[in-house]
Amino acid sequence: MRRTAATLTATLALLAGGLAAAPSSPAADPQRREAPARAAVTTRDGCITSVPEPGETAKVEICYTVFKPARAAGKRRVPMVMHSHGWGGKRADQPEVQAWLDAGYGVLSFDQRGFGASGGHAHVEAPALEGRDVRRLVKLVARLPWVQQDGPGDPRLGAIGGSYGGGYQYVGAFELLRARGEPVFDALSPQITWHDLGQSLAPSGVVRTEWALALSAASLLSDALPANVYKALLEGAALGVWPDGSIPGTEDMASFFRKNGPKWHVEQGRRLDIPMLLGQGTTDGLFPLEQGFRNWQQAMTAKARGKSIFVAYNGGHVLPAILPAGTTADTDPCSRRLAGGDFEKLNIAFFDHVLKGRPTRLRGFGKMHLATPGDRCTTITSPRADTAKKVGTVATLEGVGTPLSYQVAAGPIRVAGTPYLTGKLTALGLQNRAFYGLAIGRTPLDASLVQNNVLPINEPTPVRGQKRRVALPSVAVDVPKGQNLYLMVTPVSDTFLLMGSRLPGVVTIEDTIVHLPVVGR
Question: Taking the model in full, what pTM does it have?
Answer without folding.
Answer: 0.91
